[in-house]
Amino acid sequence: MITDPMLRLNEELVNRIRAHGVECYPHECCGALLGRDAESVREVLDLLPLENRHGASPRNRFTILPDDFRHAEKVARERGLDPVGWYHSHPDHPALPSEFDRAHAWPWYSYVIVSVEQRQPGQVTSWRLAEDRARFMPERMEIAARTRV
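The chain above was modelled as a monomer; its predicted structure follows.
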């Protein structure tokens, strides 16, 4: 794994993630990050909002089913991109990964989390799961005025 990974996305995409979090509040929103992965920079060029499939507790959990994953791969391929990660919101909680997030994450992907406090979007962070799946590591984010294609 890259020792100092970075995720690059533009302000419009960050605002769409924030808006999706507000729209789904008080439940967690979720979606796919579509883009390209290079040696040191992963660039997000589009988003694919998904339905939170966690039936028991969508307020503080999100689930992406295998069909959602396949759909994200198909849409990404149609757009000439790859699924490079996933995003979700934390209603009324910090933008820090939970133990549930860690237990259900996959190494390599970026995980963007937006905090939504009382319907107001807050901090946006990004994380990558360690190869041994023991912990999340912070991922630097670069929010550009617009993304290069």
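The chain has a mean pLDDT of 94.
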